[in-house]
Amino acid sequence: MSTATTTATRKVHLIVERQDGPNSSPYKEEFVVDYKPGMNVIACLMAIQRNPVNKSGKRVAPVTWEMNCLEEICGACMMVINGKPRQACTALVDTLEQPIRVSPARTFPVVRDLVVDRSRMFEALKKVKAWIPIDGTYDLGPGPRMPEVDRQWAYELSRCFTCGACVEACPNVNDRNSFIGPFAISQARLFNAHPTGAMHREERLEALMGEGGIQECGNAQNCVQVCPKGIPLTTSIAAMNRQVTYHAIGAWLHK
Known about the structure:
With 255 residues, this protein is an alpha+beta fold. Helices cover 35% and strands 13% of the residues. The protein has 2 domains: 3-116, Beta-grasp domain (Ubiquitin-like (UB roll), Roll); 119-253, Orthogonal Bundle (Fumarate Reductase Iron-sulfur Protein, Chain B, domain 2).
């Protein structure tokens, strides 16, 4: 049998965990789509969208999901694939065990099917002031330069695209507590290291000392295992733990 014939007859079997709305019960639905060389999970979902017929031959509503860049840059297509939170755009069918089990990241509220509401992440970023405040009403000129040795590791932290994989993998992030998650702690470290961002260093440390702060981390280290950018999240957590401890001791001594 030729390679072309083998490819033409090969199928991809998916089991998708679906949910019709935020208050609906989840259920599983199976689909079989034609295989194409180099296809990823997004390509499978697009095939279902073009012909929304399940494995039993019943026509159903197309599966809903999010995507944007398809280059592992935006983080929009993060979902749980074969038990691991990851980007669907880089989840190649040839590397996945079948049936491919796809489900939403249930650390977040499900909107529909694989679409989730990640507002919790953005609220965490606001809590730690994950930005560099400047007065943009006039030309400030060139900003302060970071030492090259600091810039190199800070760049690695800046690659975070708020996909939510680390939050989904963290056992301490759930609906029973308010832990801000590994990504927010790492971003606090990034902005504390910036010469201008350091002006709000104490506010970030106070936020990390408050409810849902760094003390909620259980050191499971799942986060660093699933980060698609290989960001040293556990190193950031250790570094911020040190900063918070020194800040707390200093505040106590100045009472």
